[in-house]
Amino acid sequence: MTLEFSAAVRRIPSYPAAAGYALAEPVVLLASNESPYPPIPEVVAAASAALATVNRYPDPASTRLRAALSDRYGVPAERIAVGNGSCDILLAAGEALLEPDAELVYAWPSFSIYPQLEAASGARAIRVPLDAAECHDLDAMAAEITVATRLVIVCNPNNPTSTALPFARIAEFVAAVPAHVCVIVDEAYCEFNLLDDPDATLDLLERHSNLVLLRTFSKVHGLCGLRVGYALCGSRELPDAVAQVRQPFFCNAVAQAAAVEALRHQDEVARRVERAAVARVQLEDGLRELGIVPAASQANFCWFDLGAGGDEERIVGGLAQAGVLVRAGSALGKPGALRVTYGTTAENDRFLEVLAVLLAAG
Ligand SMILES: Cc1ncc(COP(=O)(O)O)c(C=O)c1O
After folding, report:
1. Which ligand 1 atom is at minimum distance from the Cα of 216?
2. CA distances from 153 to 6, 72, 96, 166, 229 (A)
3. Backbone angles phi, psi at 184, to 5 degrees
């Protein structure tokens, strides 16, 4: 007997998971846009303390965490959704907003989870190509909005291309989207964006009830292994809707406690952003020395075309053999490109050293 699955299951693409989880030897993990720095001791202590009471279910309303987020960002707690990573909120938003005959608009290449939204719901996705600088083409995206559009996603900075649009362009775009269309600005990497104050978009929430700023503790806070993300919303409509479609206990107690503690350490966030800025210069300079011009990164990773001499499979395979894991562009919507997360200074040096050898051999 073989099981018969739903049409949605047959449509949903598998997420391009990174390799390397089973490797015994220490490797340089630059494939998943993680933080190379472990959580700070205070956060580890808060998470450990929460373990002592995991015989109880977690607070289903994430009350302390939403209150802490409300204090930090000045957004009322009822307009904040929390999730098992920000992906959880994104997928729940898709379930709440989309259905066959509805449309969603997003740029491409962008975050590889977005195609799951149309696949799971049967909605029609309009993928708008990035412009020549590998940035969102917001005019082209606005032109795709129709009466059927329920959701528009803008990933800023964009994964996998690392590029960001200035705040003024985002503000202009959000103002142009009809109020019944939900706009999710996916800001997973916003802390690393040096173009504008990462919190500039918060003001837009007061003017646009359809706006959702999707953020996460996975990146700058280095808590991706715990799974906790949040959405700051222009109204309580989306938090209420995602609560309806999810199981009650979508954010575990350890993650909630760690996230509350992490918010108390904005000095650490600033330190990590500074280290990422240094890594950005290190990698950009190193790549340019190899004749590679990366996209203008405002994230904790870089993105570049390998060019004529670089066969993606050979380079990614050669790096992996040398213990350096990076992400091939073909898995992310652009064959011939590479996405490389910033590691520690030593890890970045190791990557550049192996890449130089592989390019010279090509
Ligand atoms: C653009 C973007 N959004 C959201 C996420 C999801 O983060 P998480 O579910 O860990 O919060 C990622 C993770 O890589 C991402 O790149």
Report:
1. 11
2. 26, 24, 15, 16, 17
3. -100, 120
- pTM for the model stands at 0.96
Predicted confidence band at 19 (pLDDT cuts at 50, 70, 90)? Answer: low
| Dist CA 361 CA 290 (whole Å) | 13
Q: 51 to each of 61, 247, 249, how far by Cα in Å?
A: 19, 21, 16
- Is the Cβ–Cβ distance between 22 and 35 less than 8 Å? no
**pLDDT reading at 257 higher than 70:** yes
Query: Per mean pLDDT, which range of 11-15, 169-173, 289-293, 346-350 is the poorest?
Result: 11-15
Q: Is 255 helix (H, G, I), strand (E, B) or coil?
A: helix
Q: Is the CB of 229 under 6 A from ligand 1?
A: yes
187 lines ligand 1 (CB under 6 A): no
CA 189 to centroid of ligand 1, rounded, Å:
8
pLDDT at 24 over 60: no
User: Is there a contact between 93 and 184 (Cβ–Cβ < 8 Å)?
Assistant: yes
Q: Which ligand 1 atom sits closest to the C-alpha of 84?
A: 9
Q: Which residues, 6 or more positions from 257, have their beta carbon under 8 angstroms from its beta carbon? A: 46, 47, 49, 50
Query: What is the distance between the alpha carbons of residues 250 and 148, in angstroms, rounded to a whole number?
Result: 30
Ligand 1 pocket check for 296: Cβ under 6 Å: no
Q: Within a 13 Å sphere around the CA of 29, how many CA atoms are in the beta-carbon half? A: 16
Nearest atom in ligand 1 to the alpha carbon of residue 86 is 11
Gap between the Cα atoms of 317 and 321, Å rounded: 6
Residue nearest to atom 3 of ligand 1 (CA): 188
Determine whether the shortest distance from the Cβ of 87 to ligand 1 is under 6 A. yes
Going by C-alpha positions, the residue among 160, 163, 125 that lies closest to residue 144 is 125
Q: Which atom of ligand 1 is nearest to the CA of 228?
A: 11
